[in-house]
Amino acid sequence: MSADPRRQVPRTDTLLADPQLAAAADRLGRELVKSAVQQVQQRIRDGALAPGDAVDAALAGLPSTAGSLRPVLNATGVLVHTNLGRAPLSPAAVEAVAAASGTTDVELDLGTGRRGPRGEAAIAALLAAVPAAEAALVVNNCAAALALVATALGGELVIARGELVEIGDGFRIPELLTATGARLREVGTTNRVTLDDYRDALSPDTGAVLKVHPSNFVVRGFTRAVPVAELAAGLGGSGVPLVADVGSGLLRPHPVLPEEPDLQTTLDDGADLVLASGDKLLGGPQAGLVLGRAHLVQRLRRHPLYRALRVDKTTLAALEATLRGPLPPVHQMLSADPAELRRRAGALAARLAGAGVDAVAVDAQARVGGGGAPEHPLPSAAVSLPGTFAAPLRAGTPPVVGYVAGDRTLLDLRSLPPSADETLAAAVLQVAR
Ligand SMILES: *Cc1c(COP(=O)(O)O)cnc(C)c1O
C-alpha cells in the first residue's frame, strides 16, 4: 500500500532552510534555488524521486553561476566564432576585468582626488601599440564606431559600391550608415572603382570618404579597388577625411594572414581615421576602436552620441590587459604549429581509441572566422568521431561544439588551447558511455 506521494513532498520552506541550499541561495540568489526546489518537488509528486533525495537533487539541479551563459569548448576550428562569443579573453584580461568589476578608479585621479579622464590607461595602451595614431577612442563595437563617424562627420559619405558590405546576420553597413541620417554617395561598380570615381564624387557636402574592408568575401576576376595609400594621396589637399574600417583589428601585419589589413599600416598609408573591432583578431573584449588624427577623434568624442556608445570599466580593463599583457588566445591559435596540432590530435585519438571509442586523428582546415581572411584556411588537425557524437557533445558539461563532415564529427584542435585537451577527452568519454 503506497502512501499518497503528495503528502510526502517536503515543504519549500523546509528545503530552503537546509544549510547547503541556504548557502546556495546566498551565492546564486533565492529565486534560482527556489525554482530548483520546485522542480524537485514536482519529481517527488510524480513518483520519480524519493523524498529523502530532495536536497541532493535540488543541489544537482543548480547552475554553477547565477548567469546562464556557460563556458563552451570551441572545437569548430573557427578561431573567432561569433556565436561562441568571438575572442576568448586572455587570463591577464580576465584578471583585469575581475579587479575592475567593483568600485574602481576609472574616472578618478587618486593623486589629486579629482575627476580624471575616463579610460586613460586603455587609450595609452592603444597608442603605444599603434604609434601611427595621434589619438584614440573606444566605443561599444565597430558598428558603433561607424555610426559615430557617420553621425559626427556625416553629410555625404563617399563609398565604393563594392564595399557596401553585409557583415553577418543581416547587419548591413550601408543600412547602418543611412540610419544615422547620413547620405551615401556610391561610386564605381560592384567590381571596379577608380581614384577618379572618388574624386568626381567630392562636393561641399562630403563628410568623409569611407573605405570598408570586405572582411567576409573576395571578388575575383576583372576587379579594381583603390588602396588606402593611393586614395590618401589622391584626396590630399581636399581636406576630406579618409576613414578606413579594417574590421578585424590586427594591430600590425601578421605573417600568417598577409591579406588582412592592420591598424598601423592603414594609418601609415594615410588614412585619417581607422576603425576596428576589439574582439576579432585583436583578441580582446567586444569594443569598437577609433584611431587616427587628434582633431577628428576629438570631434567624435565631443559629439553627444559618444556618451551613448562609450564602454564600461570592465571593457576598458580587458582591452588594456589584452594590449599590454601576454599574447591573447586568438594569437596563440593563429601561430599554432600544425605539427604540434597533429601531435595533440594523435595523442587524444589514441587515448580515446584505447577506451573503445571509434576515434582517429585527421588533418583539418581551420579558419579565422568573425569576418576575417575568408579565403585563408589554416592547416590544422582534428579528432574524428562518429557523426552521432555531435549532438550529445553539445549537450554535455561542458558543452563541446565541433562540426559534422559527411558521417563524422570533427573536433578541430586549433580553436582550443592545449590546456583544454584533458577536458575534451573527458567530455568524449562521457558521451561514449
Ligand atoms: C566585423 C566588422 C564590423 C562590425 O564589427 P562589430 O565590432 O561586430 O560591430 C564592421 N566592419 C567590418 C569591416 C567588419 O569586419
TrEMBL record:
Subcellular location, principal: cytoplasm
Question: What highest taxon heads this organism's lineage?
Answer: Bacteria
**Function summary:** Converts seryl-tRNA(Sec) to selenocysteinyl-tRNA(Sec) required for selenoprotein biosynthesis.
Gene symbol of the encoding locus? selA
EC main class here is transferase
Q: Which family does it belong to?
A: Belongs to the SelA family.
* Keyword terms of this UniProt record: Cytoplasm, Protein biosynthesis, Pyridoxal phosphate, Selenium, Transferase
Give me any GO biological process, just one. Answer: conversion of seryl-tRNAsec to selenocys-tRNAsec
Q: Name the SUPFAM superfamilies on file.
A: PLP-dependent transferases
Classification via PANTHER family: L-SERYL-TRNA(SEC) SELENIUM TRANSFERASE
N6-(pyridoxal phosphate)lysine: modified positions: K280
Q: Tell me where in this chain the L-seryl-tRNA selenium transferase N-terminal domain is found.
A: 6-45
EC number(s) from the headed UniProt entry = 2.9.1.1
Q: Which reaction does it catalyse?
A: L-seryl-tRNA(Sec) + selenophosphate + H(+) = L-selenocysteinyl-tRNA(Sec) + phosphate
Q: Name one GO molecular function term.
A: L-seryl-tRNA(Sec) selenium transferase activity
Q: Name one GO cellular component term.
A: cytoplasm
Q: Any idea what this protein is called?
A: L-seryl-tRNA(Sec) selenium transferase
